[in-house]
Structure formats: C-alpha cells, structure tokens
What we know:
By secondary structure, the chain is of the alpha+beta class. The protein has helices spanning 2-8, 22-29, 31-48, 72-88, 118-134, and strands at residues 12-19, 54-59, 62-68, 91-93, 96-98, 102-109, 140-142. A 5-stranded mixed beta sheet has the order 2-3-1-6-7. A two-stranded antiparallel ribbon has the order 4-5. The radius of gyration is 16 Å and the shape is elongated. The mean pLDDT is 95.
Amino acid sequence: EMERASRYGHPLSLIMIDIDLFKKINDTYGHPQGDIVLKMIAEVISSTLRSSDIAARYGGEEFSIVLPETTLKGAAVLAERIRLAVEKLHIPLNCKQITQTVSLGVTTYDPAKKKTKKGTIIDAADKALYSSKKNGRNRVSIFELQP
C-alpha cells in the first residue's frame, strides 16, 4: 500500500489499537475468555471498515489498520468511531456482561509532502498509541509526520 500511495501521490493512514488493561481480563477470567474479548473487538473493528481497508492483529492485544487513500482527519474520525463502538460493546464472560475500552494511535503518510519508510509510519502510530495510554487510555491520539 505504501508503494501504491507513493506511485499515485495519495495519503495512507495507519491506526494502531491496544485493548486497555487486557492482562486483567486474562488474569480474572482466563485466556479462553480473553480470546472471546479479542474476537468481539476484532468484529467491531471489521464492521467499521471499508472493503479496501486492511485490519490485522498486530500482537497480543494490539491491532493495526491500514487505510489506503485516507487523510489524517478521516483516519481520526474512523478511530473515534471504533473507540466509541468498543466502549458501547457488552461482552458476555462467565455469566457476566463486561465492558472494555481501547486506546488508539493515528498517523498518515502523505507522499506529496515527504517520502518516508514503513518503519517511520509504524513508529509514529505507535507513539500516538502510547500517548493515548499515558494520558488515561480510552482515547485517540494523533502523531503527525513532519514534512
């Protein structure tokens, strides 16, 4: 997608998502129940995306979303939509209903402004994600790549 963005001069956004305090879910309810949380949040993420967007599990409780032809503003709007949808989700675990939140980091690569490497974009989204976590979780933060 970066090559395509560079070729056509279109923006490419990246959202990194981390499930807040996920270790507590596994410790309290067990890993099989934690898997249910992962699957339900993955379904929420998938249901908000366009067919051209690419969502993937990035690590333990992290997800990433590649958004072709999406500006920073558009990616931030989508990230907030995901955050709200997860926050409203009621997850059935061991005869209880729990709620969960996520922290999100957003950045955009605009080849018209500056060519950059894949690692730089990932690092920028990751910095934004950790800013969300550091500032209280359950929020969207943006890290703009400098031209």
